[in-house]
Amino acid sequence: DGGITQSPKYLFRKEGQNVTLSCEQNLNHDAMYWYRQDPGQGLRLIYYSQIVNDFQKGDIAEGYSVSREKKESFPLTVTSAQKNPTAFYLCASSMIRGGSYNEQFFGPGTRLTVL
Amino acid sequence: AQTVTQSQPEMSVQEAETVTLSCTYDTSENNYYLFWYKQPPSRQMILVIRQEAYKQQNATENRFSVNFQKAAKSFSLKISDSQLGDTAMYFCAFISEGNYQLIWGAGTKLIIKP
Question: Taking burial as the number of CB atoms within 10 A of a residue's CB, which of A41, B21, B60, B64 is the most buried?
Fold first, then answer.
């Protein structure tokens, strides 16, 4: 089945630790995205990538880092510099076609809790 | 700045009733797309319906339809014959053509009561 997988589903982090959230897609999509979701708010873009080895910051990139070494994979690292990392994190992917919008497909999400 | 506003934090209706969720947006762009996404308790984000701004005809998908008023910058979602499985958070989102960033509203929690 084609789709997006995220792991783990739940993640607990101690203060001062870096953690990495996994996102893999087998849809052959060029673009991948990381969003953060907090209660009572819409999704906010952290980073996105349109091509391997290239990525751009979104609105709330501070305290996060990403890599895009393979087309299928776009891991997100939440660093100790992120002051309030407890949130639900969603990964998405889409095709890239000029002159139109390309639907973003979402993974099941990872719930990160800082202890 | 482009913004999306959903003024109803929570709504509840009886099963089989019709419900309308409101969304307004602000943009100076002329070419853009609008979406309604559903996020059930599983938290999987699912696209419900989309509307291209250049199309005057309102989009429909089975029991879901939109009322797109471009001049008023309004994009409401109507759910007919509501079902228990429609219980979810509903998000309105916007993207301008050629952009990669979806702009999201804060969401409306919809509860369908049996």
Answer: B21
* Measured distance CA(A53)–CA(A76) in Å, rounded: 14
Structure tokens at B61: 């998908």
* CA pair distance A48, A59, nearest whole angstrom: 10
Task: Report pLDDT digits (tens) over B58-73.
Answer: 999 999 999 999 999 9
B102 chain-A contacts, CB cut-off 8 A = 43, 45, 104
Question: How would you classify the pairing of strands A10-13 and A64-66?
Answer: unpaired
CA A45 to chain centre: 8
Burial B43-78 (b: 16+ CB within 10 A, else e): bebeebbbbbbeeeeebeeeebbbebeeeebebbbe
Query: Three-state SS for B38?
Result: strand
Indicate the DSSP class of residue B18: -
CB B93 within 8 A of CB B33: no
Q: What is the CA radius of gyration of chain A?
A: 14
Position B83: which residue type?
Q
List, for residues A11-28, the tens digit of each pLDDT value. 998 888 999 999 999 999
- Quick check: A110 contacting B, CB < 8 Å? no
d(CA A110, CA A87): 8
Q: Please indicate if any CB of chain B lies within 8 Å of the CB of A16.
A: no
Phi-psi region of B101 (alpha: psi -120 to 50; beta: other; left: phi over 0): beta
**Rounded mean pLDDT, B81-102:** 92
Rounded distance, CA A11 to CA A31, Å? 25
Using CA atoms, how far residue A114 sits from A17, A61, B68, in Å, is: 9, 18, 41
